[in-house]
Amino acid sequence: SAAVGKRLAPGDIPAWLTVREGARLEVRDVRKSFGGLTVLDGLDLTVEPGSITGLIGPNGSGKTTLFNLIDGATKPDGGQILLDGRRIETADRWARSRAGLGRTHQITRLFPKLSVLRNVVAGSDGTWAAPAITGAQAARGVELLELVGLSDYRDLPAGELSYGQQKLVELIQILMLQPRLVLLDEPAGGINPTQIEQMGALIRELNRTGTTFLIVEHNMPFVLGICDTVHVLAGGRRIASGTPQEVRSDPLVLDAYLTGASQ
Ligand code: ADP
């Protein structure tokens, strides 16, 4: 089908997308509670520039909450979040986006009635208000859609695409902003094997050009296969960090998952 497209190869990533260097993220002693529930209890972690870093942990361990704090959807109760050494935890979401932060969501947030291409350029003017498509933006958008075999669908309403296609479009939407750090919330969840492969190839090739990734993912073969570093959250803290191999054989990690699963 047209959706499969050609395989991504080094050099396929357009040069205009790779002009910015990958960013470094530091989370220092971050705290967040909802009512009486402490979700993040003094969380420290670092995402090295140019890495593909995974964030795993049982359901409810605070992974999505951390993403919300990093991208500015929510404010922390305490602690610091630094992008390349600059504190961003009180900056608004647009300032974070201009600083190079991009994020996809577990449930995609496309405008379902607007065309795929219009969605792709939606963030380009900093408003996310689906601006008119200009020639230059359209050309860039189509270029990126071609990478994942979706350029033939540019004029279709985004809501008519499959869930997996929408996830790929959401990633392309944030790539239009030339991000330096991309947060991916379950990029491989609920999508088919071909789309998982496309998602993985796109992440790998973007990372080869320097882009930093932080990935929350329940698909363990995917996340352990693609990440160079993994942080494990449990009980509002980081309980382990290391290479996928180190984390996989860590008894603390297995224990956290078993305990989490029984709650
Ligand atoms: P994960 O992504 O690791 O599954 P979450 O960050 O989604 O974990 O959730 C951590 C905990 O925080 C859960 O118990 C969840 O119910 C709670 N939580 C998250 N957001 C809110 C909110 N806005 N109001 C109240 N509780 C919340």
Automatic annotation (TrEMBL):
List where in the cell it is found. Cell membrane
Domain (ABC transporter) spans 25-260
Task: State the source organism's domain of life.
Answer: Bacteria
Can you say what this protein is called?
Answer: Branched-chain amino acid transport system permease protein
> What organism, scientifically named, is this protein from?
Streptosporangium album
Q: Please state which portion of the whole protein this structure contains, as first and last residue out of the total length.
A: 312 to 574 of 574
